[in-house]
Write the structure tokens for this entry.
Amino acid sequence: MSVRAGDTNLPRTAGNAGSRTTGYTGSAVHLATEKARKAAVRMAVTDPDSPLYGLADGEVEAADGRLFHRGDTKRGETYRALLARHGAKPVLAEASYPPRTSHSVTTFGAHFTEARLAPDLPRVRVTRHVAVFDVGRITNHKAARNQAQGGIVFGMGWALMEKLTPDPVSGRFIDPALTDYHIPVNADVPDIEVLFIDEPDTIAYPHGSKGMGEVVSVGVAAAIANAVHHATGKRITDLPITPDKLVG
């Protein structure tokens, strides 16, 4: 498989923003594989040597690398066996996906955080974070959970320590290296629990999955700021929430 992007020879399409890559590319792949499956089914039901010979296309299902009769799962064969009888030639299919504009493809998330502040030095430490996301079908649970946890840590850094300081004369940032730009380290990362609704949204995209780039991060700072407000009564709206903003 090859991927081309940013090529002016490609046809015009909608802009890619708001974590739509999974929806756009995944839908095209999904539609192509559906066409390939239908072609393989047609090959089987018209092949006198196939156990599925003579069946209607709609009576054949596919799973676990094989085709089989819907009413009798033992009656079937693998793709390998089917293609081997036809010269081992691959089944090829092409598909495209024109993005829809009539249905919201927005993802949804809720962040809940627990923060702790020491009375002598009011440095905020997040001690627990729970997040729930509705991003359609989860295609890879391990990768999705890792991405969500990483995004939450990213949001913690934005909320509590990350800050770029521009030089008023040159406009260059005076903290271009990690020696002066603070980010969360392992000791700053609390217990993070990630939950998914995991319900396909086939109206948004044929394969039911959505992207989850922004939704895992954007609510973290607000949740932390709300936790600080509940603990101290101070409403901080200028990030990062550093101790100097909580003193006095």
Notes: The longest strand covers residues 124-134.
